[in-house]
C-alpha cells in the first residue's frame, strides 16, 4: 500500500495504491516543517538522473577545472545538487513541492465535506488526522501556521476538524486542545474567519458575526469602497462569504454538532448572547485591530440586518451566485485559492444542489489542493507553485554555465513554461472585474488561470534565457506570445511606478481601515511590491535587450523601467534594506531590489547599493551564513533566526555577488552553503521561508534546492579563477 503523486500538465493528484510497497515515513515534530520526503524519496528511487561525472571527466564534458579549492568544491556541489534536483522533475517539466504551512485551510475543506456530505477516502482522513496531531503544540493548541504559537484561529478550527474526522472527545490530545480553548474563554474569542465557519457548521448562530452586508456589491462601482476595488484574493473570499451570509447557510444539526456546541464554550450554548461577542477576539490572534471607522460601519450594518429589504437581499444573492459561478468557470473550478474554493463549493451545493453538474465539477478539483508529506495530508495555499518554482529552477541551472549537461531537464522545463502561459482573457472579464489575462503566467497552472506580474516576469526571463543559451532548443513560445506577456506587464504598472501582484491598485490604502480580518494585514487593495516591481523591471530589460524586440513598445518600456526603479529606490529602509512581502524577509526583499538596480546599470558603488551591502554584511553570522526569522515579516524589522538558513544565505550571497561586494564575505557564505549540503546533493529543510499578508507563513520546499544551486552557479560564473 503506497501513495503516489500523479501529475498531468501541472495538476498534482495524490493517489493511494493498495498493491504497492508502503512509503510510510516518520515526521520529526521538532523540525516543524516537512522535508517532502514522501514525494522526494520515491521520485529519487524511480527517476535518478545522476551524471556521476568525476573530476577526470571534466574536460570531456566541458566542465571548468579550478586550482582554487573552494571553487573546485563548488563545481562538485553544483553537479551533485542539480543531479539530485533534476531527479525530482516530473514528465510535464515542473518540480512538485509542498506549498502548505497555514493551519486554517484544511478545516475549511473538512467542514465543507461534512456539510455537503462528500467524503474523503479513509486513507486521506487518516493522513489528515496525522497532520493535525503532528502540528499540535505542547499546550494543546495550534498556530495560524506551522511555526506559529498557538492561536484561537488555529486551535478552534483544528479541534473541530478532528472531531468531524471521528476523533472522540475523550482523546487525550484532544482534551489538551479543549482545555486550551476553555482557558481562552471559548470559541467566541476566535477571529472572524473562524466564526464564519462556526456559523456555517451550526455551532454558532449567525448573530455571532458582524454583518457582511451583501448589498454592498450592488452599490455603484465607481465608489472607492465597492468590492470590485479590493485585492483579488480579498474580493474572491468575501464574495462567497457574502453569499453564504446572505442566505444564512447552515449545515444539518447532527448529534455531533450538538456535542460541539457543548464543547466549544464555557457557558451553556443556548444561554450565550452571541451578539455581544461579534468583536471578541483573543489577544493571541489580534494582528490588525478593528478601526473606529469599521466599528461604526459594523454598528450600521448590524442594525440594517434586522430591517433589510428581502427583495434587495435576493438581488444581491443573485448577483453573488452569478459571480461565484463565473469564478468557477474562469478557473476550471480550482478557484483563486483554497479559502474561496471551499466556500464557493458550499455556495454551489446550496444554490444548485448536491447532484448538480457544477458541484460535481467542484468535487473533481478538490484533490488539486491536497498535498502529502511525512507530516500528513494538508491543504496547500494554492493548487501548487508549479510555474513559480519552474521559472526559478531554469534560471538557477542556467546560471551555473552547465546547461549543456542538463538539456533534457531544461527542455522539459521549457515545455512546462509553454503549457502554463495563459493564452486568452477570461470571458466577460470587464463584467467580473478581471484584469486582462492574455500573455500572463500564473503561479501554478494554466487551468488555474489567474496571471501574476512577477510570475509573468519570471516566465519571460526564463524563456528568453533558454532561447539565448540553448540555441538548439525548441521555440514553442513565439515572439507574439512574448509580446503578449510584455503587454500584460505594461498594463499592470501602478501610478506609483511599482507593480502589484495580480492587478492594478484600484483604491487607496485608506481602504485598509475597513479590513475585517483581524489576523491579516494589507489585504484590502493590491499594493505595489518591491519583489513584483523588480521582477517586472528585469523582464522588461531582458526583453528590450533582444535585437528582435528592441523596437517593440520601446518608449513605453523605457519609461516603465525608469518609473519602476524610482519606486524601488523609495522603498529602501533607513538601514539600507528592503522589506520582503512574499518571503522571509529583508534578505529576500533586498535581493530583489539589488537585482533590479544592477540590471539597469546602477553602480555597485552608489550610495543606495553600498548601504544595502552594509546592511547584509552586518547580518552575517560567525558560521558564514545568514538566518532570518519569520518574525521579521510580522514585526517589519529584522529578527535574526537562532540558526543560519541556507535559503537566506543564498539570497544574501546572490545579492553580494551582483553588487561585487567583498569576495571574502561571499566566500564564507558559499562555504556555509557547501557545508550544509547532504551527500546526495540535497539540502535539509530548515525553517519556513514564504509569507503572505504579513502574518501567515507558507512553505516552499523547493527553495532549499533552487537558491543554493543559483548562488553556487553565480559563484562559478563570477568569482572563480581557473
Automatic annotation (TrEMBL):
Q: Which GO terms describe its biological process?
A: steroid biosynthetic process; triterpenoid biosynthetic process
List the molecular function annotations (GO) for this entry.
Answer: oxidosqualene cyclase activity
UniProt-listed SUPFAM superfamilies:
Terpenoid cyclases/Protein prenyltransferases
Q: Which GO terms describe its cellular component?
A: lipid droplet
Q: Which Pfam families match?
A: SQHop_cyclase_C, SQHop_cyclase_N
What range(s) does the Squalene cyclase C-terminal domain occupy? 385-715
Q: Which family is this protein grouped under?
A: Belongs to the terpene cyclase/mutase family.
Q: What NCBIfam families is this protein classified in?
A: squalene_cyclas
Q: What is the name attached to this protein's record?
A: Terpene cyclase/mutase family member
